[in-house]
Amino acid sequence: MNVSRRAVFIGTVAGAGLIVAGGGALALYRSDDLIRSVLTRSVGPFEMAAAEYAAFKAHFLETRNIDQAQAAGYLGAEMFGVLRTVANDAPAVVGSKFDTFERMLVTYFLTRTTFLQNTKPTDPVTFLGPQSCFNPFARFDFD
């Protein structure tokens, strides 16, 4: 089978175009989109002020050691809607790392925000901070 130079050139240009388009889509789909997408898939839709969400995201990413290469892979799979399939069908190491990331994120969200205290889905969620405490009998005056 003979392949002409024209076919090779067209194939190379098309492949490069797909790579550039995919990279551009990943660049537009930022890490906060990944976090919000995972949370929405896990706990349902929620409303949170932009400043509250930015503080939540910043503290979550600051306190967790998240590998940027893995995050980019998760981001791409989530963007195309195949993240759960990839996590389930990937080798155990990759799947367990994503499951750990997802569980850390959901746990952090549920314990550091007012999501569980809201009575309606339309109630705004507030970030309580890194040292949130739900104990109504807790006393912090150590005098």
Q: Round the Cα radius of gyration to an integer and report it.
A: 21 Å
> Number of helical segments?
6
Strand percentage, roughly? under 5%
Please tell me the overall pLDDT. Answer: 75
What percent of residues adopt helix (DSSP H or I)?
Answer: 55-70%
In the sheet with the most strands, the strands line up as 1-2
Coarse structural class: mainly alpha
Can you tell me the residue ranges where pLDDT is under 50 for at least 5 consecutive residues?
24-29
**Form type:** elongated
Main sheet: strands, sense, barrel: 2 strands, parallel
First and last CA, distance: 86 Å
SSE order: HHEHHHHE
Using DSSP, what is the number of strands? 2
Give a concise summary:
Helix 2 (31-43) crosses helix 6 (92-112) and helix 5 packs across helix 6 (92-112). The protein has 143 residues and is mainly alpha-helical.
Summary tags:
single chain, 143 residues, mainly alpha, two-stranded parallel sheet, 6 helices, 2 strands
